Amino acid sequence: MLTSPQAFPVFLPVGLLSALIGIVFIAACTSDPAPTESYHAAKQHADAGRFEEAMFEYRRAAQCGHPVAMYELALILRTGAFKSSDGSPIAYVDRDTAAAQQWFSAAAGALRDSVQAGSAQAHVLLGEMLYRGYGVARDTASALSHWRAAADLGFPEAQYRLAVARFESGHHSRAFRLARRAAQEEHAASEAFLAFLYQDGYGTTPDTDSAMVWLRRAAAHGDSSAMIRLQALRAAASDSIRSSANGDDESTP
Questions:
Q1: What is the 3-state secondary structure (H, E, C) of the chain?
Q2: Is the pTM of this model over 0.70?
Q3: Which residue has the higher pLDDT, 27 or 239?
Q4: Which residues cross the membrane (predicted)?
């Protein structure tokens, strides 16, 4: 069980939270270090496997109103896990869905303020909350609108989210075009997703060679599952070649 020496702040009911959120943060927040510094420290601790320290810094940054820290802390508490870039759990914490819901609600308000300031990342995260129903009512149309706005600001993560959403709704050709556009920006998740589309022929002609190319690029850009998928694809291709060769040998008079 991962714990932190700093307890969660006392939360008000969600309806009052939106109105009085600033007071809650002021009461819980310490000004040193700055919330951005705490957020970056949380990421560094998590990357180094220091998950108790990461939770401490996530909580401190979130309490001081850092919107991305609020969102990521809520995800950790909702799933009970720290996850790698490909979504695989790498460390577990106690799940707390009530606290997660409150942090999601807090994040929604803070992200809306950041959206008004033109933050592409805020558009992406708020879109994800609306698309999945995290702390807010599900609203697919609004989610897609936020992702399109972020994509217009040149944020490849938004193109990736749009691609996945289009794939999930069965629009495979559109998903392929969006994924390829984001992959060309060296976005690792998009490269891995594009490889999947090539491999299984969603929105395009099946192309194992292209799938391997994009998996290599995804692995080079930090997708931890891409190399495993690449090795499996190579093994399958080798087995297919051997089977074909054996078949030719058996048919030779």
A1: CCCCCCCCCCCCCHHHHHHHHHHHHHHHCCCCCCHHHHHHHHHHHHHCCCHHHHHHHHHHHHHCCCHHHHHHHHHHHHHCEEECCCCCEEEECCCCHHHHHHHHHHHHHHHHHHHHCCCHHHHHHHHHHHHHCCCCCCCHHHHHHHHHHHHHCCCHHHHHHHHHHHHHCCCHHHHHHHHHHHHCCCCHHHHHHHHHHHHHCCCCCCCHHHHHHHHHHHHHCCCCCHHHHHHHHHHHHHHHHHHHHHHHHHHCC
A2: yes
A3: 239
A4: 7-28
